[in-house]
Amino acid sequence: MFQIQKKNLKNIDWFLLFSVFALTLFGLIAINAATITTETGDTVQIVLGQNTINLFSTRSLVYLKTQIIAAGLGLIALVFLTLFDYRNFGRFAKFLYAGALGLLMLVLVFGDVRNGSKSWLTILGVTFQPAEIVKIVFILAYAKFIENAEETLNEPLVLLRLLILALIPILMVYKQGDLGTASVFFVITASMLFVAKLNKKYIFSFLGLAVLSMPILWARLDQYQKNRILVFMNPSLDISGAGYQVYQSKIAIGSGQFSGRGVSDAKFIQGGYLPFNHTDFIFSVVGEAFGFVGGAALLALFFIFFFRLILIAKEARDTYGSMVVIGISSMLFFHVLENIGMTMGVMPVTGIPLPFISYGGTFLLTCFACLGLVLSVGLRKDNYIF
């Protein structure tokens, strides 16, 4: 289960690890910048000549401490999952899938409502989002289902079974009122089936069905979800209401210009004009405080990260390992695309966090666990481990 030979240590992707640690550090800096004045409290300052620079407020340390603790726990999960043979998860795919559905059911029955969605669960005083954990469990189980159906994937009954297995958790998450996370599950499923060489006739059929079902889906959306989509289509429709965040976000990013305004001179950060700037709109903070240079550096790190993920998926020793990495890659890529896109008004606002950057202990722990699984696949691409 944990048996590793020295020959396999050369398979550790140090470029991937570097990008992740750099992204996590970038996230801590951004969270500190975002929370420096949005909370009241004593401020720690340093004086350089006639200039006074605010470092952080005492209450903003609550966010940093939580994120650092989550990163520490995530690092433990990363090491454990890297050493653990990922193929063992495939042997219990059915149990993992059942456990994921059970966890989602607990949320529907006992979950807490926050920001309009019933997606939080409190156990022994600890509050977390089970859907973030279920994403990983679903990928581990679904990858095995696809591997088992590799030779018969395009048979109608086999494909229908796979679609139903994916649709159940998607509907359960949607029932929680979390459309953004439900969309992530959809992207994971579509990406894994596409890479598994799903017949083109099914792909075009699903696209057509999606277009035809839009009026039905629209009718079932809550009003705040409709408002977000309408504002996305017409940004000036409701600047003081549903479009307020995107409007302020675009100004904040633009005001950073090339090299950024810095934290002390960042009016949108300092003034607290942008709600959720340490979570959903953390990229707006990066844009204003660090400008084009900071945003480009962040995107460069994400490029390295996803490039290495693709290489590991291609070099995996089996279909199961490849599907696991593809599922994780598609999940995190959609997070990056949607989060950065919504801050610039080119994607609808869904409340999806930015991997390794946004504040959120559960999600950061999930991201590190995902990396551990990817490294486990890469470590075992050769046949040295039995």
Structural overview:
Strand 1 (43-48) and strand 2 (51-57) form a beta hairpin. 65% of the residues lie in helices and 7% in strands. 42% of the residues are buried. It has a three-stranded antiparallel β-sheet, with helices on one face. Strands 1-2 form a two-stranded antiparallel sheet. It is globular, with a radius of gyration of 22 Å. It is built from 15 helices and five strands. The protein has 386 residues and is mostly helical.
Radius of gyration: 22 Å
N-C termini distance: 9 Å
Percent in strands: 5-15%
> How helix-rich are the residues, as a percent range?
55-70%
User: Could you say which structural class the secondary elements and strand pairing correspond to?
Assistant: mainly alpha
Q: What is the number of strand segments?
A: 5
How confident is the prediction overall: mean pLDDT?
83
* Strands side by side in the biggest sheet: 3-4-5
> Helix and strand succession?
HEEHHHEEEHHHHHHHHHHH
The main pleated sheet reads as: 3 strands, antiparallel
Low-pLDDT residue spans? 38-59
Counting DSSP H or I runs of 4 or more residues, the number of helices is: 15
User: What overall geometry do the principal axes of the alpha carbons give?
Assistant: globular
